[in-house]
Amino acid sequence: MKITDVKPYPVWVGSRNQCLVKIETDEGIYGWGEAGLSSRELAVAGAVRHFREFLIGRDPMQIGALWQEMYRSQYFEGGRVLTAAISAIDIALHDLVAKSLNVPVYQLLGGKQRDFVPCFATTGAHGQKLVEDVKLLMELGWNVIRTGIVHPDTGGDRHLYEPRESLALTAKSLVNLREQVGSEPVIGIDFHHRLNVAETASFCQRMPSGTLDFLEEPIRDETPEAYEALRRMVDVPFAIGEEFSSKWQFLPYIERGITDFVRIDVSNVGGLTESMKVAGWAEAHYIELMPHNPLGPVCTAATVHLAAAVANFFSLEVRTSPTEKLGFFDKTIFPVQHELDGARFPVPTSPGLGVEVNEEYLKREEFKFSESPHLHKRDGSFTNW
């Protein structure tokens, strides 16, 4: 069996673009993958086209060797664009090879270790609506719930963000939430790296101990020493890693005990090949995986197979729930996809990833340029989105 084509499809799905990749073979077997570098899909598609030139004619069964060749056979190795492209190709190769062997992808990863994959839901509400959302989710069986940032009045400017104003309001909202729903649910918040060390410490100090079960990405990840300083100031478990594009980026966070949950993104870190290495490394340090999964059915399926195959798994992010519908799981585009059973995904038994994609739809659809908000403070200076 030989690879005959590698096709990137950066197209609009729901409320954002997705970058899907299809690998075809001379035996008619194909696989689908997805890259996770949101808002820079054209850059990833360009990298996929570079890799395509030497992947055609190669044996798709050699997944590990092809990963190493893609990563090492260039002077400027790594980086988020290249690794996102490698991720999509690697996932597609796993899908393709598993189909050729008539087994689910997790069989290539050592077999399943659980019958279902528990998930967590997200709500962006605040105030009394936040309490109502969390109570609704709890009634429907969700016991891990992520909340979002409370934004102060911006006078209609959606790009305005003042960290100090926001953290005070957010802390107050979370304290009220915990008082209203009790100690049973696992409650966390994603600050989307919008704070600095001092701001994060101030945020945590505004809440009684036990208010939060995890704090996701409060500051940027480039400097592990900053997270180490923060670790000494606060007692809330950290969930870090969704931006990491290799096992090497995870190194200081795992080895130095900086993170408590590994927020690995299979579509950014290097696919299933690299994810399994990070998972084993985390297991050796008694750290559980809490995968980042903000994309569509292909990334979700790949992450379900990863979660099925590892021992140290906690909960999977899913962006379709009673409190969040983003349109990423359109059955017109993905006629066969994994279906939630309450707050969990049953581990599939079908060959490959268990997802089918309407390629003809992708061919008709266009890429739509879209930018994340370019946030600024009241003084006009730019800050993190």
Brief rundown of the structure:
The chain has 385 residues and is of the alpha/beta class.
Write structural notes for this entry.
This protein is α/β, with parallel strands linked by helices and 385 residues long. It folds into 2 domains: 3-104, Enolase-like, domain 1, CATH 3.30.390; 107-350, TIM Barrel, CATH 3.20.20. A hairpin with a 4-residue loop joins β2 and β3 (30-35). It has helices spanning 41-55, 63-72, 80-101, 128-139, 163-181, 197-205, 224-233, 247-255, 271-284, 297-309, 359-364, and strands at 3-13, 16-25, 30-35, 116-123, 144-147, 186-190, 214-216, 238-240, 261-262, 288-289, 316-317, 320-321, 324-325, 344-346. The model has no long low-confidence stretch (mean pLDDT 96).
Shape: globular
Tell me roughly what share of residues is in helical segments: 25-40%
Provide the CATH architecture of the largest domain.
Alpha-Beta Barrel
**Strand element count:** 14
List the topology elements.
Layout lengths: L2 E11 L2 E10 L4 E6 L5 H15 L7 H10 L7 H22 L14 E8 L4 H12 L4 E4 L15 H19 L4 E5 L6 H9 L8 E3 L7 H10 L4 E3 L6 H9 L5 E2 L8 H14 L3 E2 L7 H13 L6 E2 L2 E2 L2 E2 L18 E3 L12 H6 L21
Parallel strand pairs: 4-5, 4-11, 5-6, 6-7, 7-8, 8-9, 9-10
Antiparallel strand pairs: 1-2, 2-3, 4-14, 12-13
Helix pairs in contact: 1-3, 2-3, 4-5, 5-6, 6-7
State the main characteristics.
385 residues, alpha/beta, Enolase-like, domain 1, TIM Barrel, 9-stranded mixed β-sheet, 3-stranded antiparallel β-sheet, 14 strands
